[in-house]
């Protein structure tokens, strides 16, 4: 059996009881980053064999995964944080397991997506998860325009290096776009701010809070 296990995005206490039970049960864990996985396992007193499996090496791990599954082993995959296959590796392993007739079991958990929409004040019925945009300026702006003019809310992920640039780019598409920003979600200094793109850019600049990891929800709806 291949288990796809959701893990915390910051606060280690957000893992589910079921996820802990599965991580204790399996014979081996494929992990996007074994150092991060080892920290999580150590926190809960779990000792397991870990195999590195990131976006670059995932395709190289398929044969090894199938070897474990064919021998009857139970295998788990965990990404660095949150839900695998959602802006994270895992899809190639899942595809290989499906194609070769092995059972797959998702162990639901937290993600940046369900965390930020739980505090979305805009009451959107349809929300598109885009994740990280291209690093190339023209492609980034074009994609933001495409997403915005579809009319549905959408979620972006961004690093501290480009959050101010991203808010400026959103303002180029619509100065009056409604934006929710989650910074360092579930962590010690987590923060949520709602406003127009340039208002938020000014806030993060002036308060020196353009650090950490950001999840951005953009909506055409108002709060009223």
Automatic annotation (TrEMBL):
CDD domains (alphabetical): RsmI
Domain Tetrapyrrole methylase: residue ranges: 1-195
Gene3D superfamilies: Cobalt-precorrin-4 Transmethylase, Domain 1, Methyltransferase, Cobalt-precorrin-4 Transmethylase, Domain 2
Entry keyword Transferase: yes
EC numbers: 2.1.1.198
Keyword vocabulary terms for this entry: Cytoplasm, Methyltransferase, rRNA processing, S-adenosyl-L-methionine, Transferase
Uppermost EC category: transferase
Catalytic activity: cytidine(1402) in 16S rRNA + S-adenosyl-L-methionine = 2'-O-methylcytidine(1402) in 16S rRNA + S-adenosyl-L-homocysteine + H(+)
Chief location: cytoplasm
Taxonomic superkingdom: Bacteria
Annotated compartments: Cytoplasm
GO cellular component terms given for this protein: cytoplasm
An example Gene Ontology molecular-function term: rRNA (cytosine-2'-O-)-methyltransferase activity
Segments crossing the lipid bilayer: none
One Pfam family of this chain: TP_methylase
Family: Belongs to the methyltransferase superfamily. RsmI family.
Function, as annotated: Catalyzes the 2'-O-methylation of the ribose of cytidine 1402 (C1402) in 16S rRNA.
PANTHER family named among the record's database cross-references: RIBOSOMAL RNA SMALL SUBUNIT METHYLTRANSFERASE I
Name the UniProt record assigns to this protein: Ribosomal RNA small subunit methyltransferase I
Organism annotation: Borrelia crocidurae DOU
Source lineage: Bacteria, Pseudomonadati, Spirochaetota, Spirochaetia, Spirochaetales
Name of the coding gene: rsmI
């Amino acid at each position: 059996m291949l288990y796809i296990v959701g893990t915390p995005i910051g606060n280690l206490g957000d893992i589910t009881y079921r996820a802990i039970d599965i991580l204790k049960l399996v014979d081996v864990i494929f992990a996007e980053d074994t150092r991060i996985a080892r920290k999580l396992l150590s926190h809960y007193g779990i000792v397991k064999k870990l195999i590195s499996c990131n976006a670059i090496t995932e395709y190289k791990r398929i044969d090894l995964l199938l070897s474990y599954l064919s021998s009857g082993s139970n295998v788990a995959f965990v990404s660095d944080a949150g839900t695998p296959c959602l802006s994270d590796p895992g899809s190639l392993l899942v595809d290989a397991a499906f194609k070769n007739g092995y059972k797959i079991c998702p162990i639901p958990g937290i993600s940046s997506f369900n965390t930020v929409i739980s505090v979305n004040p805009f009451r959107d019925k349809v929300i598109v998860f885009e994740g990280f945009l291209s690093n190339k300026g023209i492609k980034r702006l074009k994609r933001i325009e495409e997403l915005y003019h579809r009319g549905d809310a959408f979620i972006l992920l961004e690093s501290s290096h480009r959050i101010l640039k991203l808010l400026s780019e959103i303002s180029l598409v619509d100065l009056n776009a409604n934006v929710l920003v989650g910074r360092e979600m579930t962590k010690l200094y987590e923060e949520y701010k709602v406003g127009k793109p340039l208002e938020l850019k000014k806030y993060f600049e002036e308060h020196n809070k353009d650090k950490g990891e950001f999840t951005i929800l953009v909506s055409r709806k108002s709060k009223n």
